[in-house]
Amino acid sequence: QVQLVESGGGLVQAGGSLRLSCVASGDIRSTNSMGWYHQAPGKQRELVADITTDGRINYKDSVEGRFTISRDNAKNTLYLEMNNLKPEDTAKYYCHADGIIAGVSPFESWGRGTQVTVSS
């Protein structure tokens, strides 16, 4: 079983910055893609950004140029640097990962989320 634990959310004024972290634990042999999703009240969960083991990155259009995703493969840790935050970025942010655990079994896991609130 793989557990993902997010941290770094909070309340910030528009134009401010936050850095989210997600630590993956468990008997992980390798991760393929790790990513951040967000979900605002009454809306569907959407991809914010994801990154593969070999460094390919994909961003949601509205965050490109403001957010930066990165990962430390040795520490199984994912980051999201969020700059110039806007009120419309307000949402709960979830970490997602998929890969292989010991025994060569695939896994897909979600964290419980961390709240990001941007005031105008």
Average residue pLDDT? 95
Specify the helix fraction band.
under 10%
- Quote the beta fraction: over 45%
Structural class: mainly beta
Count up the helices: 0
Shape: elongated
* Radius of gyration from the alpha-carbon trace, in angstroms: 14 Å
Main pleated sheet: 7 strands, mixed
Topology as a string of helices (H) and strands (E): EEEEEEEEEEE
Multimerization status: single chain
Contiguous runs where pLDDT drops below 50 for at least 5 residues: none
* Amino-to-carboxy terminus distance: 40 Å
Number of strands: 11
Please describe the topology of this protein:
Layout: E1 3-7, E2 10-13, E3 18-25, E4 28-39, E5 46-52, E6 57-59, E7 67-72, E8 77-82, E9 91-101, E10 105-110, E11 114-119
Parallel strand pairs: 2-11
Antiparallel strand pairs: 1-3, 3-8, 4-5, 4-9, 5-6, 7-8, 9-10, 9-11
List keywords for this structure.
120 residues; 7-stranded mixed sheet; 4-stranded antiparallel sheet; 62% strand
Would you kindly provide a brief summary of this structure?
With 120 residues, the chain is mainly beta.
Describe this structure in words.
The radius of gyration is 14 Å and the shape is elongated. The protein contains no helices and eleven strands. The model has no long low-confidence stretch (mean pLDDT 95). Helix content is 0%, strand content 62%. A hairpin with a 4-residue loop joins strand 5 (46-52) and strand 6. Strands 2, 4, 5, 6, 9, 10 and 11 form a seven-stranded mixed beta sheet that branches. It has 120 residues and is mostly beta strands.
